[in-house]
Amino acid sequence: MRREGLTFTMIFLAESANYGESIRNFSYLKKMNRGDEKQYAYISRQAMRYNIVKQANWDNTPVDGKSGVVQFAPSATIKEYPEIDLFGYMKTIAKGDNEKGGAVTRSAVVRLSNAIALEPFQGDLDFLTNMGLSVRGNLKNGIAQSEIQRSYYTYTISIDLDRIGVDGEINLSGEVKAERIKTLLESVQYLYRDIRGRRENLSPLFIIGGRYVRKNPFFENRVNVNEDKINIETLKEILEDASVKENTFVGITTGIFDNEKIIKEELNAESVGAVFTHLKEEVDQYYGESN
User: Model-level pTM?
Assistant: First the structure.
């Protein structure tokens, strides 16, 4: 059986990277509750997708609102636009003299999870004013508050390699398919997010994954950090399956996690950059076999 599923789970460190609804002068982080009665901030998959697409220079797919909803233009195809090849689309065509009308959809081929904080929200607030500007004009000072948190986050990307570049009668060359996935990998490797005057570095500090026969996101919901240590025992349990272990790469950034030495020894971890190189090689190998 061919190994058609590419999946990898990552950890990065970021501060207050996604806000939800604001009420008056108070801004709330996007958060979710767990059974331990704690709240965990998250960066939505839509926000992560936005930054990946923008930094890959794929944010040029035409859109229109003729159907009453802003969607990708019916004329846009995966041949010209990698964004809708990888992340899917819904295009609604209005009924016309020579057209039946209706919705045409493509499910995502590259699937992102939310980036979930690995440390609970502690209720920290940032007190803000516009004193600097108000003093200049002898005007009334404005006051605002924002929830803030600095935490490790984890998220997973899963890719169906056999579906890239294929849509109806369109079937792109293996070279084009490989180039699109490698561009995605480069964007993820050096990902960042601009928010509220800050540029947050979302580059992975830890990564584990590979190319597998099963398209299961093996390491999603399995990576955790406790007291600056990654939960190596859970990962070792997954790697007891030989078919997973032999195709898995592990990367870690030096000087971040307290059990770095153990991770390198027991999981054969390399640098994060080395793992992205391996993943690109896996992509080239897959599409080379497909030609």
Answer: 0.93
